[in-house]
């Protein structure tokens, strides 16, 4: 039984989250520089059984694609070409970064750690994964 991995794609860095093998818990895993993301994924997928990759779909609140959407579309296409045996899905990521900031603030993390944009990206990836799991697995 494989994990589900999610990606909060950004131009500089990407947050990564995964489920446990039973797909019960979604957890932030790490943050990776965008330029090394495909290398990271090759290594991770070689070491862990992953059945699905979920990539955040960047939309404005009105549902129109965000400015980064074409870049994310190109990345999804690369994923599907490079990992043809993996299911690659898209998940609406509206408000996940704002929700991540709020969750980090409420968790009591010190001010300096709250400024860590990588932490926000990792938590946002976990929120994207949770939304996907709610819609597809935790019925």
Describe the model:
By secondary structure, the protein is of the alpha/beta class. The protein has one domain (3-136): 2-Layer Sandwich (Nucleotidyltransferase, domain 5). Helix content is 43%, strand content 25%. It has 5 helices and 5 strands, in the order βββαβαβααα. Strands 3-2-1-4-5 form a 5-stranded mixed beta sheet, sandwiched between helices. α3 (96-106) packs across α5. The two termini are 18 Å apart. The mean pLDDT is 87.
What is the general shape?
Answer: globular
CATH class bucket: Alpha Beta
Range of strand content: 25-35%
| Mean pLDDT across every amino acid position | 87
**Main sheet specs:** 5 strands, mixed
Give the strand order of the largest sheet, numbering strands 1, 2, ... along the chain. 3-2-1-4-5
Helix content: 40-55%
Whole-Å distance between the termini? 18 Å
CATH homologous superfamily assignment: YqgF/RNase H-like domain
Secondary structure class reads alpha/beta
- Which regions contain 5 or more consecutive residues with pLDDT less than 50? none
Number of self-contained structural domains: 1
Number of helices: 5
CATH topology: Nucleotidyltransferase, domain 5
**Helices and strands, in N-to-C order?**
EEEHEHEHHH
> So, CATH architecture?
2-Layer Sandwich
For the secondary structure, the number of strands is: 5
Compute the CA-based radius of gyration: 14 Å
